[in-house]
Amino acid sequence: MPILILALFIGIPLIEIYLFIQVGGWVGVWPTIGLVVLTAFIGTTLLRQQGLATLARAQSELDQERLPVRELFDGVCLVFGGALLLTPGFLTDAFGFALLLPPLRAILGRGVWAAMARSRNVDFSVYGARSGPRPGGGPEPGGPVIDGEEFGVRRDEEDGQPPRLRERR
Fold first, then answer.
1. How far is CA 33 from CA 30, 39, 94, in A?
2. Residues contacting residue 112 through CB under 8 Å, at least 6 positions apart
3. In this predicted structure, what is the pLDDT of residue 2?
């Protein structure tokens, strides 16, 4: 793994320098610089738009008392995409713009989810789910039970709803 990281830290800047020289030779120095600034501007605009949409979807999922897993993954992809778009270069911009495409994020998310499900170090369980044979045939999830106390939570006993976090004002 350290060799791969070293190769990326050396290889990506070399590819970017090569691309700068090639594009600069085709269109000139100032248009090349203009292209880099333009892609950063367009990228941050798209990033802001998609980030706000993802945040709205996450809030909607939380309002319906569901865990916003897809939205969290989209948010991580948008953070990486934004970092790549703000890094000067054509290769990093291409990867950054690719992470802004929702269909590509969905495919990537399914791949990451499948890899995590195959991993022996990750166990998925839902609180309150029935116990039974697991699809992978592995051992039943278990382990120590941790007793704790709640704080910052109020109970809505009047309407029979589950406890919710207090709204901060």
1. 5, 10, 16
2. 73
3. 85
Q: Tokens for 153, please give them.
A: 């939570």
**From the DSSP assignment, how many helices (H) and strands (E) are in the chain?**
5, 2
| Number of neighbouring beta carbons within 10 Å of residue 71 | 19
Ordered by start, the domain boundaries in the chain are: 2-120
Q: Which long-range contacts (CB under 8 A, 24 or more apart) does 89-96 make?
A: 89/12, 89/16, 89/19, 89/20, 89/36, 90/16, 90/19, 90/20, 90/23, 90/35, 90/36, 90/39, 91/12, 91/15, 91/16, 91/19, 92/12, 92/16, 93/36, 93/39, 93/40, 93/43, 96/43
Residue 136 phi/psi, 5° resolution?
A: -80, -10
* Gap between the Cα atoms of 164 and 153, Å rounded: 6
Q: What is the pLDDT of residues 25-73, one digit of tens each?
A: 999 999 999 998 998 899 889 999 999 999 999 999 888 888 888 899 9
Q: How far is CA 51 from CA 99, 104, 110, 130, in A?
A: 12, 16, 20, 36
Query: Is residue 156 very low, low, confident or very high in pLDDT (cuts 50, 70, 90)?
Result: low
